[in-house]
Amino acid sequence: MQESRKEKMGVLLGLLGVICFSLTLPATSVAVEYFGTTFVGLGRAVIASILVAIILIGRKEKLPSARQFKSLVIVSLGAVLGFPLLTSWAMTSLPVSHGAVELALLPLATAGFAMMRAGEMPSLKFWLSSIAGALAVIIYAIYLGLGQLHIADFALLAAVVILGLSYAEGGLLAQEIGSWQVIAWAIIIAVPVLIIPVSLNVSGEMLHAPLKAWISFLYLAIVSQFLAYVAWYGGMAMGGISRVSQIQYLQPFLMIIFAALFLHESISVFTIVIAIAVVLSVIIGKNASIAKKASI
């Protein structure tokens, strides 16, 4: 009973994380127009580092071990460096709905890396539901006429792979050191690499950017880069990496809804139909059994 309650809490935390992440592409689309790719993609972590440094010092958190540091480097490469930079660059030429569809492949990437990194073995039912969800978003992509890939598409697909590994590694490490500690240390590790490129992309014109641009950037720095990961890694640590990763199938459609609300992109009936199909695959996948490899 206690284990079931823990899994439910993990799913709820994962859902909270997904809702927060769903505003990332719309916010990025607004911010890059005024601040540029590098400042938005990497600058968010510099701002977030101020917050996490205060928390880490205030709580007197002990330094990660050498083994944990290696895992944190993987998390940092995906969640702090690779994904923000690649998506910021892609959002300069793609609409949010386009990016949302391709990011829907994240659950499959996360589950695949979970098998390798965390020793999880999802059942056939889990994989069938994952494939069904992926097929739904592929059909949606074809419907939107997104069949032809270009450089920005490859950037998003690379972002999916990098973040999938980061999610799996972070979810595993969160069981040891805690969810917020994972992303906090990952941000601190990345900051020395980020300061120079971010500084070189600061200009006086940024001071004249509209309020919506600054709100979008601060959202990316405080929520997308830190608080959302606290909920997400905590959810995976409590509910299981593969199981909680299924909730990500809701993310593209939440992104599209937010894009319609804040960027005035339209929502078709077909989008709603596909969203229902994806939600069903999430429910089925969430209830599928996931075994753990026996320790040797």
Automatic annotation (TrEMBL):
Protein family (similarity comment): Belongs to the EamA transporter family.
TM spans (from-to): 36-57, 69-90, 126-143, 149-168, 180-202, 214-235, 269-288
Limits of the EamA domain: 9-139, 151-284
Source domain of life: Bacteria
Pfam families with a match to the protein in the record: EamA
Subcellular location as annotated: Endomembrane system
Native source organism of the sequence: Lysinibacillus pakistanensis
Keywords: Membrane, Transmembrane, Transmembrane helix
Membrane topology designation: Multi-pass membrane protein
Name the record gives this protein: EamA family transporter
PANTHER family referenced in this protein's UniProt entry, alphabetically: EAMA DOMAIN-CONTAINING PROTEIN (PTHR32322:SF2), INNER MEMBRANE TRANSPORTER (PTHR32322)
InterPro entries: AA-Vitamin_Transporters, EamA_dom, EmrE-like
